[in-house]
Design brief:
The structure holds two protein chains of two kinds.
Chain A lengths: L5 E4 L3 H12 L7 E4 L2 H8 L15 E4 L8 H9 L9 E5 L4 H10 L3 E4 L4 H18 L14
Parallel strand pairs in A: 1-2, 1-3, 3-4, 4-5
Helix pairs in contact in A: 1-5, 2-3
Chain B lengths: L1 H4 L2 H21 L10 H14 L1 H19 L11 H51 L3 E6 L4 E4 L1 H7 L3 H4 L13 H9 L7 E8 L5 E12 L5 E10 L1 H23 L3 E5 L5 E4 L1 H7 L3 H4 L4 H4 L5 H14 L3 E9 L2 E13 L5 E9 L1 H64 L6 H32 L5 E4 H11 L1 H4 L4 E5 L4 E4 L1 H18 L6 E9 L3 E8 L9 H4 L18 H11 L4 E5 L5 E8 L10
Helix pairs in contact in B: 2-3, 2-4, 3-4, 3-5, 4-5, 14-15, 15-20, 16-18, 18-20
The chains are: A alpha/beta, B alpha+beta.
Chain lengths: 152, 623
């Protein structure tokens, strides 16, 4: 099973489609693995359950929605950031919530970024494109991530 | 006294000398005294007896007999007697002189006795006079007619009259009218050997009143005849005055205590009442007389007197005041009294117990009620707080849902509309369809803004205010920067006066300024020369900020609606808005302890004001 550079944790099919559409403008759509809830996200990252046969290594970034079935986004975040093996993995919270408590909580738990999904699609596309470009291309990921530059 | 002065030598010497003188005189005058040869000797014996008494008289008699016998009775110059006549003459002489001696001596003794009795009497009178004159009591003696015939020094001092002024007057003259009948009666109804005493009021010479105790006793002769009256007068004015003032102070104390709402009492060492006040009398419906001299146990067999007694004993043994609660059973049930018991001591050293008690039953009931009330209040507050907290929680999760779940579908609509438009770009759409898609996109965006504003509004209501000192000049500059893109290429003339510092929550006040400046920019959109002025004035307590524009203004009759949520005064599509901005401004300013208001006129611009409490020089805690 392949390891891809971006792990998108998102339960909404619409959002998945819109995000992938946005990322495709950077040619990053193929670099995305989509999981639909927090439990699946942890399975993927820890190579357990259906992902136990996945290739070794970490994605360069996790795009994490907060409101998720089973295990929600903050729990996933807390789990990752309290694990010495995982805490270096960049996690970007990508959510509809502008609520300050959510924002504060996520930063406290160690989120690397917090992005509110804009309602306006153009803004939304810009935001996602920027995110993809920064984390998957510009940013130097920590050791143990999927090996770097891949030709476009 | 005579005996003491005359020695035996003198007395007998006089006897001898007088006889010798008689002898010499008789020798010299013998021719003349032939027939009465004893004449001088009789005189000598008489002198001797008078001077020395019986015995010297007898000595003179013997000597005279011997000498006369020797010298003048024949045979002369011998003691022998020549005849019976001579013997008889001597015998007669002897008898006569013996008689003279004896009588003279008796006379002399009687005289002595009389003299010494007189002296004693004198002494006694002196003593009594001194006694009477220096006596502490004033003394009058009255004659049978009731007139003063003697007055001592003391009464003269007492009444201010000289003694002669009093003599001869009636004692009644000096007595107050009201007391005269009493004295009169007492003077008339005398009874031998019985003294009477009266309290009298006398008048001094200077008009002052003198209180006296007069002791009246009759002076009666040995035969029982009344000779007069003795009146002894003791000045008791001071004592009377002290008594009067004591009485007065006692009466004052009594009436004072009778108004006292507290019960008061004094007991002796073994718990017998010496005093109780009116209040305690009424409380137990017993007269004071009933109380005096009795103990609690005797008075109230059915009362819980043991606790009272124990407290009394404690105070008397420790000598310290005790404040305690005691219970009393009354008709309407048990009453609680807070009692203050304290030791008292009389001048003679007798230990007493004083006490005052206040009925606190009602107070206790009130206190219990208040306690109960407080408890229910507390639990009610807790209940309400819990309800409020639950409601808040609900609101919180509601806003969260609104924020998250409502925005997501909007995003999706807008996203897919956009994608659809892109998709259709290759095959151009008819104008109407294109317009519909644009409307869908714009409306979706508006719905998103609405949600954001609504969330901000709700957040401003709930968020805690974080006070810091804010530089308003700086804040205005920042907000101007924020809304730059709204201005685009329009020319706006900003006129910003220097603004004072203020205390408040920076993010909230920033939102206030943002809303007001954004509005000003928005509503001057149609002006050729948009002019926005920002300034402030200061009054006693507050700083008043204002934002003035020369835009479209508003109809003043709707001023009251300006700051209401979802209230909009412009339907013109170019003044887009959610109707939440000014509501948010008002809410934030209110939470900072300030006010908002606005003035405007259609077509002539608007001015929005908000006040904030002045920055205190010291102590920033004003929230």
């Amino acid at each position: 099973m392949e390891l891809k550079r971006i792990l998108l944790v998102e339960d909404s099919a619409n959002d998945i489609e819109l995000i992938l559409t946005a990322l495709s403008q950077n040619n990053l759509a193929n670099e995305v693995v989509v999981v639909r809830d927090g439990a699946e996200a942890l399975d993927y990252l820890y190579r357990q359950g259906v992902y136990r046969l996945r290739m070794e290594g970490h994605p360069v970034v996790v795009l994490l929605d907060l409101k998720l079935p089973k295990i929600d986004g903050t729990e996933v975040l807390a789990h990752l950031k309290s694990d010495t093996q995982m805490k270096l993995l960049p996690v970007v919270v990508l959510t509809s919530s502008r609520e300050e408590p959510d924002l504060v909580k996520c930063y406290e738990l160690g989120a690397n970024a917090y992005v509110v999904k804009p309602v306006d699609f153009r803004e939304f596309v810009e935001a996602i494109k920027g995110l993809g470009l920064f984390w998957a291309v510009v940013n130097q990921p920590p050791p143990g991530s999927i090996s770097s530059v891949r030709s476009k | 006294m005579v005996d003491v002065k005359r020695t035996d030598f003198q007395r007998y010497g006089v006897a001898v000398v007088s006889v010798a003188v008689a002898l010499v005189l008789t020798l010299l005058l013998r021719p003349l005294l032939a027939q009465s040869i004893f004449a001088f000797f009789i005189a000598a014996v008489t002198i001797s007896a008078w001077y020395g008494g019986m015995k010297p008289g007898l000595v003179a008699t013997v000597l005279s007999t011997l000498l006369a016998g020797y010298f003048f009775i024949a045979p002369f110059y011998s003691l022998g007697l020549s005849s019976a006549v001579s013997l008889l003459r001597l015998a007669i002489f002897w008898a006569v002189t013996f008689l003279i001696s004896s009588l003279t001596s008796k006379l002399r003794t009687a005289k002595h006795q009389a003299e010494s009795a007189l002296a004693l009497l004198q002494l006694s009178e002196d003593r009594y006079r001194r006694l009477i004159d220096t006596a502490n009591e004033g003394i009058w003696t009255l004659d049978v007619d009731g007139r003063i015939d003697y007055a001592n020094q003391r009464i003269s001092q007492m009444l201010g009259y000289s003694i002669p002024e009093m003599l001869g007057r009636s004692s009644l003259d000096f007595v107050d009218q009201a007391f005269r009948p009493l004295l009169q009666a007492s003077l008339e109804q005398w009874q031998q050997g019985h003294a009477k005493q009266h309290d009298l009021q006398l008048h001094r010479f200077d008009g002052a009143v003198l209180w006296a105790i007069a002791s009246i006793s009759p002076i009666v002769s040995s035969t029982g005849k009344r000779l007069g009256t003795l009146i002894m007068i003791m000045d008791v004015t001071k004592r009377k005055q002290a008594e009067e003032s004591l009485k007065e102070s006692q009466a004052l104390f009594e009436s004072f205590m009778s108004y006292s709402p507290v019960t008061a009492f004094i007991k002796d060492e073994i718990g017998r009442y010496l005093y109780v006040n009116r209040q305690i009398e009424t409380l137990f419906q017993r007269d004071m007389a009933d109380w005096i001299g009795k103990t609690d146990a005797e008075l109230f067999p059915t009362q819980p007197t043991q606790q009272w007694h124990d407290n009394d004993v404690r105070v008397l043994t420790t000598g310290k005041m005790l404040e305690t609660v005691e219970t009393v059973l009354l008709d309407d049930g048990e009453h609680s009294y807070i009692s203050l018991k304290f030791p008292l001591k009389t001048q003679s050293g007798q230990k007493l117990l004083g006490g005052i008690s206040i009925d606190i039953t009602e107070r206790q009931q009130f206190e219990a009620k208040i306690r109960q009330f407080n408890q229910t209040l507390e639990s009610r507050v807790k209940e309400r707080t819990a309800q409020l907290e639950a409601a808040n929680q609900e609101l919180e999760s509601f806003s969260y849902s609104v924020s998250h779940d409502l925005r997501a579908p909007l995003r999706h609509i807008s996203g897919f509309v956009e994608l659809l438009q892109k998709q259709l770009r290759s095959a151009p759409l008819d104008e109407a369809s294109d317009r519909y898609l644009k409307i869908i996109a714009a409306t979706t965006k508006h719905a998103g803004t609405l949600i954001d504003d609504l969330l901000a509004f709700s957040r401003m209501g709930r968020a805690e205010i974080r006070h810091t000192v804010i530089d308003m000049d700086q804040l205005v500059k920042e907000v101007q920067q924020d809304i730059k893109q709204d201005i685009n290429d329009r020319s706006v003339c900003w006129q910003v006066e220097p603004l004072p510092q203020i205390q408040g929550d920076p993010s909230m006040l920033r939102l206030v300024l943002h809303n007001l400046l954004e509005n000003a920019v928005k509503y001057t959109r149609q002006c050729d020369r948009a002019k926005i002025m920002i300034g402030s004035t200061v009054n006693e307590q507050d700083v008043i900020f204002f934002v003035q524009d020369n835009g479209v203004g508003f109809d003043e009759q709707y001023t009251h609606k300006l700051f209401g949520i979802f209230q909009r005064l412009h339907s013109d599509p170019q003044f887009e808005g959610t109707g939440i901005g000014l509501a948010n401004v008002r809410r934030i300013i209110h939470r900072h302890g300030g006010q908002t208001w606005a003035k405007g006129e259609v077509g002539k611009g608007a001015t929005f004001y908000f006040s904030l409490p002045k920055l205190q020089n010291k102590g920033k805690e004003w929230n």
